[in-house]
Amino acid sequence: MFKKGFKAAHFMSMNRVGTVVEINTTKNNQMTIGGTTDARVYIVLEYKKSDGSLERVSYPSGDLMRIYD
Questions:
Q1: 63 — phi, psi (to 5°)?
Q2: In 11-52, where do the E strands start and end?
Q3: Is residue 14 part of a domain?
Q4: What domain range includes position 51?
Q5: Is 38 a domain residue?
Q6: If phi over 0 gives left and psi between -120 and 50 gives alpha, with beta otherwise, what is residue 14?
Q7: Domain contains 32
Q8: What is the pTM of this model?
Q9: What pLDDT is stored for residue 36 in this prediction?
């Protein structure tokens, strides 16, 4: 479970820690044998670059791990 302000990192680059700034859901119209699947959740992380600028990247929620410090 992620909330705005939490620290998180993508599982393939755990050394790059960002802050959750947005949580977006999109409808999933994919049909399966059992019916439709749930909505997809995307989380936007904000990274601070070395030059002081900010970078925002959107990831599927299942690819992120929360960072406790």
A1: -90, -5
A2: 18-26, 31-32, 35-36, 40-48
A3: yes
A4: 7-66
A5: yes
A6: alpha
A7: yes
A8: 0.83
A9: 66
